[in-house]
Amino acid sequence: MTVILGSGSPRRRELLAQLGVDFTVASPDIDEDVIPGEQPVPYVQRLAVAKAHAIPAPAGALVIAADTTVDLDGEILAKPLDADDARSMLRRLSGRTHAVHTGLAVRLGEQTVSEVVTSLVTFVVLSEPDLDWYVGTGEPFDKAGAYAVQGAGGAFVERVDGSVSNIVGLPLHTLLRLAAGVGRPLVG
Question: Where are the alpha helices (DSSP H) in the chain?
């Protein structure tokens, strides 16, 4: 079975590889801009489906695509533009609970199924030295919400309610269910 991961994310590649699945990677080229007034959950679902359809695939191939965003009180926190933007996002997350949504789409031929998985993340209160240290690591710059739960940013996470693989960017439990649902189980 041919499996194509429609994502350039090294974190998604690592998660899928943990399942022992042989796959190839193709990076979709789509417009990821937020539509004015668009809420976080419909946003990630729209992008996941668009990514799944932007990947050319041979007949019988299973295409997996995802998009993850951080949602603070209904506002999408994308990847920071620079160090000041990263500090600003992290200050806003400090001592608060936010949602992480991943839109996941699985396509087999003309059949596409998608779902959004949400996890809640509570941060400890961050000090200015915490921010300086973390921004200095360089880790926040290509991460939605300016942190990586699986990296040094995990030091700021007090509690997680929900799927950790979702926060990293590929909710594995949902992926297995969706793939089996289209008749292409990934494991077992």
Answer: 10-18, 40-54, 83-93, 128-137, 164-168, 172-181
Here the CATH number for the domain that contains residue 141 is: 3.90.950.10
Residue 187 included in any domain: no
Full residue range of the structural domain in which residue 40 is found: 3-181
The encoded tokens of residue 141 equal 């710059």
Known active-site residue 22: no
**pTM (2 decimals)?**
0.95
Non-local (6+) Cβ contacts of 31 within 8 A are: none
| 135-171 confidence digits (pLDDT tens) | 999 999 989 999 999 999 999 999 999 999 999 999 9
Q: Return the amino acid letter for 35.
A: I
Considering 22, 31, 67, 142, which one is annotated as catalytic?
67
Side-chain-side CA neighbours of 156 within 13 Å: the count stands at 30
